[in-house]
Records
---
Amino acid sequence: MVKVIVADDHEMFAQGVVSMLSSSSELGKFETAGSGKKVVELMQKEPADIVLLDVDMPDLNGEDTVEILRKIWPKTKIVMLTMHDELSYIELFMKLQVDGYVLKNTYKDELITAIKTVLANKTYFGKSALEKLKAMNKKSDEAASTEETSMLDTLTERELDVLKLTAREHSVSQIAEHLCISENTVKTHRKNIFRKLNLKNSLAITRYAIENGLI
Amino acid sequence: MYAEASYGNKILDSLWLHYDEDPEGTLLMVQEIQRNTPKDNYAIRGKSYALLGIINKMQGNFDLAMKNQLIALKYRKLVGDGEQIAGSYVNLGILKQRTSNYKDAFSYLDSAWVIAKRLKSVKYMVRVKLSLGNLWQQQDGNTEKALQCYWQSLGYLKMQPVETLKRMALMGIANVHNRINNIDSAAYYYRLLNHYYQNKNDNYFLVANYTNLGVLFSQNNNLDSATLYLQKALALGNKMGDVNLIAIIRINLCDVYSRAGKMDESYRALVPLVSNSAGLELDNMRLVFESLSNYFEKTGRFDSALVYYKKYNLLRDSINKEEKFNQVQELQAQFNNERLKTEKLAIEQERDKANVRSGRLMTITISLVAVLLIAILIGIIYRIRYRAKLMLAQKNEELHKQKLDEIFKERQIEKMTALMEGQERERSRIASELHDGIGMLLATIKHHFQMIEDEMDKNGEVYKKAFHLLDKASDEVRRISHNMASSVLVKFGLAAALRDLVETISSSEKLHIDLKLIGITERLENSVEIHVFRTVQELLGNILKHAKATKVTVQLVMHESELMLMVEDNGVGFNPVDGAKFKGMGLSNMEARVAHLDGKLEIDSLSGKGTTIIITIPK
């Protein structure tokens, strides 16, 4: 018999989840908690096999609760059940090594799949969370594979144009005319280039461009 | 006659490579080949005449060089090889430049350019550009245009590298910097080149490079280094026999010695040029005379100095007529100084006597003038005072108005700030209510809805529709609450919030957003984070609504003393002076935010050329 704790400060929502899940035969015992503190109290009485955890809660929020659960009851599975679909949240809980991450407006089937997956000692992240993570990883992979030119990667296309023209000793006004932007914008681009490549003056830009085969 | 014409061709090719080592011998060989080549072998004839022209040029015989190059051009036209024709035009252009006939030089180079461009011959395009660069530089010191030519050359060479040409371009660039006294830059390029030439044993260019470094140090008043490099150049240059190059070295050496006070050495450096000036370019001849004149002037022999200055002047362009006139006068004055001094003394003595005689009359005149003057002065003072009073009143009024304006503006900012802060609080309250209240409720309803699913007709239209609407409502609530207040901003900070914002927009809209965060490693002050985030949000909103852009770059860069936000789009742009549109786009709201942070907002937009917005906030 699998024991489940559903933690959410909205009692009605927690009850809803319980009644939805109780129709599934594998799960036997349900308890609800309105705060992180309540979760810890319930666990002290009788540890649960799985905790469905909200992020924003009074008296110990989601992340603090996860840390405590991980330390004291490492075997208990944790699935975040939250409204937050932002990458920063997903990453945070990835780092805290929760077993699953599911959005609250998900379908019943997905929640059950998540619970089953997690109970089989695997991790489950919702479809949209997975997509976001993938997009993010792809970006960081790209950055890692081109480590040598990573300084250059910080430049925008426009800055690269300005860099090349500066390297070819065009004046600010010539560059402005050439790119149809104001001189002040050109100056700002240059300032950014100096900052990003850690260069001091336009001769250094020329040197950099020659050494990196940009011109 | 050679058994095969191709044999002559081969010899010519090897001569082309080594003519600078033994010009005399090469000359004889070429004449020999010409005698032994059939008249109708245009290719060999063309090549040999071109080579003759080059050697003539090296020996300073420009007239003969021109003649030979023109013959070469004729033969090459008969052969019809475009590149070679272009080459001839370039050679002719250079010759015209060396004889100070700039107009013809431009016209020859133009002909060469047309052909090279048509053939897409990188090598010849570069040659033309390099010659043009030299021409711009020499003709009227148009260093900007010269630089442009050299850099264009390097650009073409990127497509198809030719080492020697690349070095020539670099040398051109170095020379321009040398000329405009960009010492660091010039030294950088020269050193780059020195390295090349020493490895390749390319003596001609090494001499030129040593000379240039010598000139550079001379300008920099580093006379010891200048002497060293010029002597190096002279030693190597003497072996090669380009009279004009040697002349330039000697002229510079003379100048450096003279400035170091070594007058004997200074004169000695010039002597060989005076005793044998055959083949010297006019320009260089002029410089020799100038140096001699300077030398004699410094050693106090003004008569000789004047002689050489007159010679120098004869060769000078008419552009500097006035300057020339003055300098001659000055020299003449110095020449006559001794005589004048005695004369002057005599005149002054005469004058003193006269002054004593007319003493009484003078005082009377002066006092009369003084009265008049005082009267005028007083009048002026009154008028000035009156006007000053008027102006003071005016200024006071202006100041008053300005102060009022300032107070008004400050009030407005205060009001805006209060409004914005209130707005911010209200926003997060509504957002959390939406998020936690209605959002939660909707999610709950959805779950309940699903529970009754089994007991219903699954194909029921009403059920499906209601379910779809519920989904939509829940998405909408989430979107609105995110827009109103970002919990990510509060919890994770500006960098994370911007990343999320960009992620959300670029996944739902057809807009590619490039986000760069540079040096944002720590959390910023609360108000800065909120205002910057809202500004980006508003700017992106504007771009989506008005700009029709496909690409946006958002950058947040932490500089030493300021935080800089830059948002660029490639959309339709607008005219920043257009006030109505300006306000309509919520820019005044943004201006208030920026003003609240003591920042600066700049808009750079051109109809059809996208918009760049730069916001700087002091740290």
---
Amino acid sequence: MAQVNLEGIIKVYPNGHQAVETTNFNIQDGEFVVLVGPSGCGKSTLLRMIAGLEDITEGTLKIGNRVVNDVDPADRDIAMVFQNYALYPHMTVRKNIGYGLKNRGMPAAEIDAKVQDAAKMLNLTEYLDRKPAQLSGGQRQRVAMGRAVVRDPALFLFDEPLSNLDAKLRNQMRIEIKALQRRLGTTAVYVTHDQVEAMTMADRIIVLSEGRIEQIGTPSEIYHNPASIFVASFMGAPPMNLIEAQADQGQVRINGYDGLMPAPKSVIGPVTLGIRPEDIELDSRGSVPFRVDILEELGAHRLLHGAVGGQPFTVMVGKDHSARIGETHITLKPDALRLFDVETGKVL
Amino acid sequence: MKRAGFDNIWLPVALLLPQLMIIAIFFYWPAAWALQSSFFLQDPFGFGSTFVGADNYTSLLGNNQYKRIAWFTIVFSVLVTFFSLAIALLLAVKADKVIRGAKTYRTLLMWVYAIAPPVAGFLGILFFDQSTGPMTKFFQSFGWDFKLGVDYNATATAMVIAAVWKQIPVNFIFFLSGLQSIPRSVREAAMIDNRSATGRFWQVTFPLLAPTAFFLLIINITYALFDTFGIIDALMKGEPGNNPMTLVYKVYLDGFRGNDLGGSSAQSVVLMVLVLVLTVFQFRLVERRIHYT
């Protein structure tokens, strides 16, 4: 168990591409941190630098207060779970799980006991003598987990471990991984592009875009108080509504609609107004006219896609709400309104 | 379960016939003919032949020169196979790590592949030339009076070197593509599990390369036994004398230069049996330990 410190970490590839700009963050002991962002945002590069699979161009990386910039991956006391599992195809499950222990000079009897324990924990006992090719995707994923768990490392690294599984299995494994990490209390860094995984698994989320950290925070902070337009539009399905508006001394007016609303901040000039689809109420006496174009039935709730003031807008209503295509009115919850700078995209 | 099939027997037979005919005419017929003629003593001028039973075989077994050539063939094949595989593997592993100019580097290593065996033999002659050959000078610097075509060991060494040199690019190409087909993440997982690069190579990389290596092993043994004919012929400059040769070369020598078709056929049959035994051995013993993904 250990904390992880990244101090001024930079990654520039030999071809000049800067994958990660100056990055600072600390991960607490036992914390589950998720790095999330679209492909090419540098999240995998960051993880691979922590693992030691990529060189660190600049900066200091500490795992458990030890600078590990130049330490071999095998000596960093980490275990990694890869996207395609990266099992050794020629070894049985037993050997796959025990390989890292064997190379660390552990006596065979002890390895066997540890492998048995890990297999039991992951329901793999009856598959110990099979080869990876004879296992299903979910079982392979478990073997990859077993290989990480058995080592009892200071730090778990997960590189999109669930993206090769089908949706049902993914939900199940998500809970299992989270529960396992809780039980073992091992610090974990988890990379994903799936914002649902990030929200459900993380103690803290780090949102990345184009090699930069956009925001660090708990899932709730990230969701309700996004630091930028990027975070607001990346996190949440459907994403936050973002419409152009004019702010003027405590008031804000949506472009294309003349009504005034109280603004959360006193600013002047063009802004981007953000509000989550579930923070809007359908209200025939409401102040803002809303035209519903498409109705998406999701069972537990419905999504109404349409326009406010000519700008695309989505409203989420409960399953008990009657909704029809056509003109209606809405009310925006005032305390759910967020204003963003048009130029920088940062929250105001 | 429903199986797709033919309504009558003639269509599949007709479809198979061209292939079967090629095999029959070019493989089984000559083999049967060789087997038959190995029991006869042919008149050197082609006027007839006498049945001599197993005489051709018994005289082979009692022939010390034949034993010596068989021994040389074994040593030659083992050395050529081992060195051409080992050096190619080393080069492939190194080339796999090259990042800058990788393509140029690889192309350079593959060039030799395009050289025909007799040309390789001829280049060998240049390199091992008595007065100007750089390899001759190299060996002489160690105090070895290297005489190609005169000294048995010198000629044998030259043959092994030329044969290995010629075969390395083929092996290199296969090993390199084999290495590149190993998933990167598997190697990275090994980096986290094992700090020793040598350990990683032998425990993870090489087992995953084993199907390629096994295929190359067969190809290389076949090459050393049969396809080195051109190199051997060129290096001994048509003068067998005291020079080393392989069994295949001896078949040619006795059959076409010595006009002993019966004896030559008997040797061919021995070679066929040898190949059969080798193949069975390879598939029974070696392949069983290989993991195919």
